[in-house]
Protein backbone atom coordinates (compact mmCIF):
# COMPACT_ATOMS: atom_id res chain seq x y z
CA UNK A 1 0.00 0.00 0.00
CA UNK A 2 2.81 2.35 0.87
CA UNK A 3 4.52 1.66 -2.48
CA UNK A 4 1.28 2.33 -4.34
CA UNK A 5 0.81 5.62 -2.48
CA UNK A 6 4.33 6.68 -3.37
CA UNK A 7 3.74 5.84 -7.04
CA UNK A 8 0.42 7.62 -6.95
CA UNK A 9 2.12 10.64 -5.40
CA UNK A 10 4.86 10.56 -8.02
CA UNK A 11 2.27 10.26 -10.78
CA UNK A 12 0.30 13.16 -9.35
CA UNK A 13 3.45 15.26 -9.15
CA UNK A 14 4.35 14.45 -12.74
CA UNK A 15 0.84 15.30 -13.90
CA UNK A 16 0.96 18.62 -12.09
CA UNK A 17 4.37 19.38 -13.58
CA UNK A 18 3.16 18.59 -17.12
CA UNK A 19 0.05 20.68 -16.59
CA UNK A 20 2.16 23.59 -15.38
CA UNK A 21 4.44 23.25 -18.40
CA UNK A 22 1.47 23.19 -20.77
CA UNK A 23 0.00 26.21 -19.06
CA UNK A 24 3.31 28.01 -19.38
CA UNK A 25 3.46 27.24 -23.09
CA UNK A 26 -0.12 28.40 -23.55
CA UNK A 27 0.61 31.64 -21.68
CA UNK A 28 3.61 32.24 -23.95
CA UNK A 29 1.27 32.22 -26.94
CA UNK A 30 -0.99 34.75 -25.25
CA UNK A 31 -4.28 35.52 -27.00
CA UNK A 32 -3.89 32.71 -29.54
CA UNK A 33 -7.60 32.66 -30.37
CA UNK A 34 -7.55 36.31 -31.46
CA UNK A 35 -6.17 36.72 -34.98
CA UNK A 36 -2.91 38.54 -35.62
CA UNK A 37 -3.70 40.99 -38.41
CA UNK A 38 -0.77 41.50 -40.76
CA UNK A 39 -0.63 44.48 -43.12
CA UNK A 40 -0.53 43.52 -46.81
CA UNK A 41 1.11 46.36 -48.71
CA UNK A 42 1.16 47.09 -52.43
CA UNK A 43 4.28 45.26 -53.63
CA UNK A 44 4.87 41.55 -54.11
CA UNK A 45 8.04 41.47 -52.01
CA UNK A 46 6.01 42.58 -49.00
CA UNK A 47 3.40 39.92 -49.81
CA UNK A 48 6.13 37.27 -49.75
CA UNK A 49 7.66 38.45 -46.47
CA UNK A 50 4.25 38.80 -44.85
CA UNK A 51 2.98 35.37 -45.88
CA UNK A 52 6.19 33.66 -44.77
CA UNK A 53 5.82 35.33 -41.37
CA UNK A 54 2.10 34.47 -41.29
CA UNK A 55 2.50 30.79 -42.17
CA UNK A 56 5.25 30.39 -39.59
CA UNK A 57 3.16 32.07 -36.89
CA UNK A 58 0.40 29.60 -37.74
CA UNK A 59 2.93 26.83 -37.06
CA UNK A 60 3.34 28.35 -33.60
CA UNK A 61 -0.40 28.02 -33.03
CA UNK A 62 -1.72 31.47 -33.95
CA UNK A 63 -4.55 32.57 -36.18
CA UNK A 64 -3.43 35.02 -38.86
CA UNK A 65 -5.36 37.42 -41.07
CA UNK A 66 -3.95 39.43 -43.99
CA UNK A 67 -5.37 42.94 -44.26
CA UNK A 68 -4.86 45.09 -47.36
CA UNK A 69 -3.27 48.38 -46.28
CA UNK A 70 -1.76 51.44 -47.97
CA UNK A 71 1.85 52.33 -47.33
CA UNK A 72 1.04 55.48 -45.32
CA UNK A 73 -2.48 54.63 -44.00
CA UNK A 74 -1.16 51.44 -42.38
CA UNK A 75 0.41 53.47 -39.57
CA UNK A 76 -2.99 54.68 -38.35
CA UNK A 77 -4.11 51.05 -38.18
CA UNK A 78 -0.96 49.98 -36.37
CA UNK A 79 -1.31 52.88 -33.93
CA UNK A 80 -4.87 51.98 -32.91
CA UNK A 81 -4.37 48.20 -32.97
CA UNK A 82 -6.72 47.47 -35.88
CA UNK A 83 -3.55 46.19 -37.57
CA UNK A 84 -1.22 44.04 -35.47
CA UNK A 85 2.04 44.15 -37.42
CA UNK A 86 3.74 45.10 -40.68
CA UNK A 87 6.85 43.08 -41.45
CA UNK A 88 8.41 45.02 -44.36
CA UNK A 89 8.56 48.77 -43.70
CA UNK A 90 10.94 50.64 -46.02
CA UNK A 91 12.05 53.45 -43.73
CA UNK A 92 12.83 55.87 -46.55
CA UNK A 93 9.16 56.14 -47.48
CA UNK A 94 7.04 56.33 -44.34
CA UNK A 95 5.46 59.79 -44.57
CA UNK A 96 4.78 62.16 -41.68
CA UNK A 97 2.59 59.88 -39.56
CA UNK A 98 5.24 57.23 -38.84
CA UNK A 99 7.60 59.37 -36.71
CA UNK A 100 4.62 60.80 -34.80
CA UNK A 101 3.08 57.47 -33.79
CA UNK A 102 6.54 56.05 -33.05
CA UNK A 103 7.36 58.98 -30.76
CA UNK A 104 3.96 58.59 -29.09
CA UNK A 105 4.80 54.89 -28.46
CA UNK A 106 1.67 53.75 -30.27
CA UNK A 107 3.85 51.50 -32.43
CA UNK A 108 7.11 49.67 -31.80
CA UNK A 109 10.03 48.96 -34.12
CA UNK A 110 11.11 45.36 -33.45
CA UNK A 111 14.24 45.38 -35.60
CA UNK A 112 15.72 45.04 -39.07
CA UNK A 113 14.33 42.60 -41.62
CA UNK A 114 17.91 42.31 -42.98
CA UNK A 115 16.64 42.70 -46.54
CA UNK A 116 19.49 43.93 -48.77
CA UNK A 117 17.93 46.78 -50.72
CA UNK A 118 18.55 49.03 -53.69
CA UNK A 119 16.66 52.17 -54.60
CA UNK A 120 17.14 55.01 -57.03
CA UNK A 121 16.83 55.93 -60.69
CA UNK A 122 17.12 53.22 -63.32
CA UNK A 123 17.13 53.12 -67.09
CA UNK A 124 17.24 50.40 -69.75
CA UNK A 125 20.91 49.89 -70.69
CA UNK A 126 20.37 50.98 -74.31
CA UNK A 127 19.82 54.49 -72.87
CA UNK A 128 23.61 54.80 -72.54
CA UNK A 129 23.65 55.39 -76.32
CA UNK A 130 20.76 57.87 -76.15
CA UNK A 131 22.30 59.77 -73.21
CA UNK A 132 26.09 59.37 -73.47
CA UNK A 133 27.69 59.71 -70.07
CA UNK A 134 25.21 57.59 -68.15
CA UNK A 135 25.19 56.40 -65.42
CA UNK A 136 26.43 59.85 -64.29
CA UNK A 137 23.35 61.94 -63.54
CA UNK A 138 24.76 64.92 -65.46
CA UNK A 139 24.17 63.02 -68.71
CA UNK A 140 20.42 63.45 -68.12
CA UNK A 141 20.79 67.23 -68.48
CA UNK A 142 22.17 67.08 -72.01
CA UNK A 143 19.66 68.58 -74.50
CA UNK A 144 19.58 65.46 -76.69
CA UNK A 145 18.76 63.33 -73.63
CA UNK A 146 16.02 65.67 -72.39
CA UNK A 147 14.51 65.78 -75.89
CA UNK A 148 14.56 61.99 -76.21
CA UNK A 149 12.69 61.67 -72.91
CA UNK A 150 10.17 64.45 -73.56
CA UNK A 151 6.50 63.58 -74.18
CA UNK A 152 3.56 65.77 -75.23
CA UNK A 153 2.49 66.06 -71.60
CA UNK A 154 5.92 67.12 -70.30
CA UNK A 155 7.62 69.00 -73.17
CA UNK A 156 9.92 70.86 -73.17
CA UNK A 157 10.85 68.88 -70.06
CA UNK A 158 11.77 65.24 -70.15
CA UNK A 159 9.44 62.72 -68.55
CA UNK A 160 10.55 61.02 -65.33
CA UNK A 161 8.40 58.01 -64.37
CA UNK A 162 7.84 58.18 -60.62
CA UNK A 163 6.32 55.95 -57.95
CA UNK A 164 2.53 55.91 -57.53
CA UNK A 165 1.30 59.09 -55.78
CA UNK A 166 0.28 57.35 -52.55
CA UNK A 167 3.79 55.94 -52.09
CA UNK A 168 5.21 59.45 -51.69
CA UNK A 169 7.63 61.09 -54.12
CA UNK A 170 11.22 62.10 -53.51
CA UNK A 171 12.24 62.12 -57.14
CA UNK A 172 10.36 65.35 -57.86
CA UNK A 173 12.16 67.09 -54.98
CA UNK A 174 15.57 65.88 -56.14
CA UNK A 175 14.88 66.97 -59.73
CA UNK A 176 13.90 70.43 -58.47
CA UNK A 177 16.86 70.64 -56.07
CA UNK A 178 19.25 70.15 -58.97
CA UNK A 179 17.36 72.27 -61.53
CA UNK A 180 16.93 69.28 -63.81
CA UNK A 181 14.57 69.83 -66.78
CA UNK A 182 12.27 66.92 -65.97
CA UNK A 183 8.67 66.50 -64.88
CA UNK A 184 7.95 63.63 -62.47
CA UNK A 185 4.86 61.73 -63.63
CA UNK A 186 3.40 59.30 -61.05
CA UNK A 187 2.80 55.75 -62.17
CA UNK A 188 -0.53 54.09 -61.48
CA UNK A 189 0.84 51.04 -59.67
CA UNK A 190 3.80 48.70 -59.28
CA UNK A 191 2.47 46.72 -62.23
CA UNK A 192 2.41 49.86 -64.37
CA UNK A 193 6.03 50.63 -63.49
CA UNK A 194 7.14 47.16 -64.54
CA UNK A 195 5.02 47.24 -67.69
CA UNK A 196 6.66 50.49 -68.80
CA UNK A 197 10.13 49.10 -68.13
CA UNK A 198 9.39 45.95 -70.15
CA UNK A 199 7.78 47.94 -72.98
CA UNK A 200 10.72 50.35 -73.13
CA UNK A 201 13.16 47.45 -73.29
CA UNK A 202 11.18 45.73 -76.04
CA UNK A 203 10.61 48.83 -78.21
CA UNK A 204 13.84 50.66 -77.29
CA UNK A 205 11.76 53.62 -76.07
CA UNK A 206 13.74 56.06 -73.87
CA UNK A 207 12.86 55.83 -70.19
CA UNK A 208 14.18 57.05 -66.84
CA UNK A 209 12.30 55.95 -63.74
CA UNK A 210 12.29 55.44 -59.98
CA UNK A 211 12.71 51.81 -58.91
CA UNK A 212 13.92 49.52 -56.16
CA UNK A 213 15.33 46.10 -55.45
CA UNK A 214 14.84 43.32 -54.68
CA UNK A 215 12.40 42.98 -57.57
CA UNK A 216 11.87 40.22 -60.10
CA UNK A 217 11.96 42.75 -62.96
CA UNK A 218 15.65 43.38 -62.29
CA UNK A 219 16.40 39.74 -63.06
CA UNK A 220 14.69 39.96 -66.44
CA UNK A 221 15.64 43.42 -67.73
CA UNK A 222 19.11 44.84 -68.34
CA UNK A 223 19.13 48.10 -66.40
CA UNK A 224 21.62 50.66 -65.18
CA UNK A 225 21.46 52.64 -61.94
CA UNK A 226 22.04 56.39 -62.14
CA UNK A 227 24.83 57.75 -59.97
CA UNK A 228 22.59 60.12 -58.05
CA UNK A 229 22.83 63.94 -57.85
CA UNK A 230 24.27 65.38 -54.64
CA UNK A 231 21.93 65.83 -51.71
CA UNK A 232 21.04 69.48 -51.19
CA UNK A 233 19.76 68.72 -47.70
CA UNK A 234 20.54 65.63 -45.65
CA UNK A 235 16.94 64.45 -45.30
CA UNK A 236 14.89 61.54 -46.60
CA UNK A 237 13.05 63.92 -48.94
CA UNK A 238 16.23 65.20 -50.58
CA UNK A 239 18.40 62.08 -50.71
CA UNK A 240 18.00 58.53 -51.97
CA UNK A 241 20.12 55.85 -50.34
CA UNK A 242 19.49 52.10 -50.05
CA UNK A 243 16.91 52.04 -47.27
CA UNK A 244 16.71 50.04 -44.10
CA UNK A 245 13.70 47.76 -43.87
CA UNK A 246 12.21 47.22 -40.42
CA UNK A 247 9.43 45.28 -38.73
CA UNK A 248 6.77 47.33 -36.92
CA UNK A 249 4.10 46.19 -34.47
CA UNK A 250 1.25 47.74 -32.56
CA UNK A 251 2.48 48.83 -29.13
CA UNK A 252 0.36 46.19 -27.36
CA UNK A 253 1.58 43.32 -29.55
CA UNK A 254 4.25 41.95 -27.21
CA UNK A 255 1.94 41.76 -24.21
CA UNK A 256 -0.90 40.18 -26.21
CA UNK A 257 1.08 37.64 -28.29
CA UNK A 258 4.44 37.08 -26.53
CA UNK A 259 5.67 34.16 -28.64
CA UNK A 260 4.72 35.89 -31.89
CA UNK A 261 6.55 38.99 -30.67
CA UNK A 262 9.73 36.96 -30.07
CA UNK A 263 9.32 35.33 -33.47
CA UNK A 264 9.00 38.65 -35.31
CA UNK A 265 12.10 40.00 -33.58
CA UNK A 266 14.04 36.97 -34.92
CA UNK A 267 12.42 36.86 -38.38
CA UNK A 268 14.66 37.81 -41.36
CA UNK A 269 14.25 37.93 -45.15
CA UNK A 270 17.00 37.25 -47.68
CA UNK A 271 16.73 39.45 -50.78
CA UNK A 272 17.85 36.76 -53.23
CA UNK A 273 15.34 34.28 -51.86
CA UNK A 274 12.58 36.86 -51.89
CA UNK A 275 13.31 37.77 -55.49
CA UNK A 276 12.98 34.11 -56.56
CA UNK A 277 9.58 33.86 -54.89
CA UNK A 278 8.46 37.14 -56.44
CA UNK A 279 9.40 35.83 -59.87
CA UNK A 280 7.33 32.68 -59.29
CA UNK A 281 4.29 34.73 -58.29
CA UNK A 282 4.47 37.67 -60.66
CA UNK A 283 5.86 36.12 -63.83
CA UNK A 284 5.07 32.43 -63.54
CA UNK A 285 1.57 33.03 -62.19
CA UNK A 286 1.93 30.71 -59.21
CA UNK A 287 -0.24 31.04 -56.12
CA UNK A 288 1.39 33.10 -53.38
CA UNK A 289 0.43 30.77 -50.53
CA UNK A 290 1.59 27.71 -52.46
CA UNK A 291 4.93 29.34 -53.36
CA UNK A 292 5.51 30.35 -49.73
CA UNK A 293 4.53 26.90 -48.42
CA UNK A 294 6.97 25.26 -50.82
CA UNK A 295 9.75 27.56 -49.61
CA UNK A 296 8.92 26.80 -45.98
CA UNK A 297 8.88 23.05 -46.66
CA UNK A 298 12.37 23.24 -48.18
CA UNK A 299 13.98 25.65 -45.73
CA UNK A 300 13.39 24.39 -42.21
CA UNK A 301 17.04 25.02 -41.37
CA UNK A 302 16.46 28.73 -42.09
CA UNK A 303 13.26 29.28 -40.11
CA UNK A 304 13.57 26.77 -37.25
CA UNK A 305 15.79 29.13 -35.18
CA UNK A 306 13.07 31.81 -35.44
CA UNK A 307 10.48 29.42 -34.02
CA UNK A 308 12.93 28.24 -31.38
CA UNK A 309 13.41 31.88 -30.33
CA UNK A 310 9.63 32.21 -30.05
CA UNK A 311 9.30 29.13 -27.86
CA UNK A 312 12.04 30.36 -25.53
UniProtKB/TrEMBL annotation:
InterPro entries: ABC_Gly_betaine_transp_sub-bd
Pfam families: OpuAC
Keyword Isomerase belongs to the record: no
Domain of life: Bacteria
Positions of the ABC-type glycine betaine transport system substrate-binding domain: 35-298
Keywords: Signal
Signal peptide bounds: 1-22
Protein name from the UniProt record: ABC transporter substrate-binding protein
Biological source species: Mesorhizobium australafricanum
